[in-house]
Amino acid sequence: MGTAAVAPSGRALASLITREIDQTSGKVLELGPGTGIFTERLVSRGVDQSDLTLVEQNPGFVRLLKQRFPRATILEIDAAALGLIRQPRGDLFGAAVCGLGLRNMPVGHIEGIMRSAFSRMLPDAALYLFTYGRRCSVPAEVLERLGLAAEHFGIALLNLPPASVYRIVRVRNIQ
Fold first, then answer.
1. How far is the CA of 54 from the CAs of 58, 80, 111, in angstroms?
2. CA 142 and chain centroid, separation
3. Is residue 22 part of a domain?
């Protein structure tokens, strides 16, 4: 319940959600990495561990992530608080992956997470997230308020249960 997952994400979903991210993406932000299946796939796609920032609030997962990805930056915080953490000037993320169970969160919290993430991303960077629902888990009013657009990216049919991946991009500056 605390992880908002029916089952751990599988390899098919990890491959799909990370398909456009590699060593040329620059620094990569991962929100809610859990056990690190997406993180593992990012590393196998050429992203250096030192270019990864993993935001995970579950202490058990944080301990596991520190063992598995010792060179990654791991922040034990709520993803909505990312905007409060000092970041070196000009050190923006070229891509982001979100494994958080957004459907189980209040709209205001989802907005805080999206605002925090996009405040740390390059203007043309995309955030990839998955959902088990029929539409994007970021409500349309949040996308509109933040100047974002979501496009369906694909379906991981071999995931249990099948999951849809969305790519979220800026269409205008965040207010």
1. 12, 13, 19
2. 17
3. yes
* Order of all β-strands in the sheet with 93-98: 73-75, 52-55, 28-31, 93-98, 121-131, 163-170, 148-156
Look at residue 5 and tell me if it is in a domain: no
Residue 163 within any structural domain of the chain: yes
Reported as a single tens digit per residue, the pLDDT across 68-106 is 999 999 999 999 999 888 776 668 999 999 999 999 999
Is the preceding omega at residue 161 within 30 degrees of 0, hence cis?
yes
Any idea which residue has 């409500």 for tokens? 139
The domain of 81 spans 11-170
Residues 127-165 have pLDDT tens digits of 999 999 889 999 999 999 999 999 999 999 988 899 999
Look-up of token digits 């249990």: 160
**Domain of residue 108, CATH code:** 3.40.50.150
Q: How many domains does the chain have?
A: 1
Q: How many Å is the Cα radius of gyration of the chain?
A: 15
With 0.85 as the threshold, say if the pTM is over it.
yes
The tokens for 172 are 């205008």
Please name the residues in contact with 108: beta carbons below 8 A apart, sequence gap of 6 or more. none
148 domain-assigned: yes
145 Cβ contact partners less than 8 Å away, ≥ 6 residues apart: 111, 175
